[in-house]
Amino acid sequence: MIPIRYGILVLVTACGASEANDSGVTGGGGTTSADAASDSYVDAPARCFGDGGKLVAEAKPCSGSDSDCFVLRVDTCCGPDLALGISKSAPEYAFCYPQAIGAEACGGLGCAKFPGIMAEDGQSTETGGFPVARCMNMGGQFTCTTQITYPPGSDR
């Protein structure tokens, strides 16, 4: 009989907790999430989430320039995939989000997977566009976030 803790280890490994996924989504400075977050193996910080389950503020500071931020694409099992703005000065926070990669990662959950990528502005790529990282003043603090942007000349 396999000990239970071995089964849990397999589940965590199946979710791909060791690296961020190279989605090709670019940040404000043109760096992909994999360039900024997975140049070397780094463990997730001890505290990833705070009030209301949101990523802690230490993962999102910026100086006012979009180039301080990158887009982390999070592959999920249920709903749309996510695009999160992370500070380039805190790439270790990318490891707060295990990736649901591979057929076995989401097996048996019984939830619906939706197309597209959801940005922090609540918009989705389902109607076109792509997520970009932005450094925005939110309540007096510059914070990395994501929004969906559309190519010039599009109807949006």
What does this structure look like?
The protein has 156 residues and is an alpha+beta fold. The chain has one domain. The chain has helices at residues 4-14, 33-37; strands spanning 69-74, 79-87, 113-119, 130-138, 141-149. A 3-stranded mixed β-sheet has the order 1-2-3. The longest helix has 11 residues, at 4-14. The chain is globular and about 45 Å long. The relative contact order is 0.20.
| Spatial shape | globular
Proportion of strand residues:
25-35%
What about the largest sheet?
Answer: 3 strands, mixed
- Helix content percent band: 10-25%
Cα end-to-end separation:
57 Å
What's the number of structural domains?
Answer: 1
Average pLDDT confidence is: 74
The counted number of beta strands is: 5
- Taken in chain order, the helices and strands follow as HHEEEEE
Radius of gyration: 16 Å
Q: What strand order characterises the main sheet?
A: 1-2-3
Determine the structural class based on helices, strands and strand pairing.
alpha+beta
Tally of alpha and pi helices: 2
- Low-confidence regions: 1-40
Brief summary of the model shown:
Helices cover 10% and strands 26% of the residues. It has 156 residues and is of the alpha+beta class.
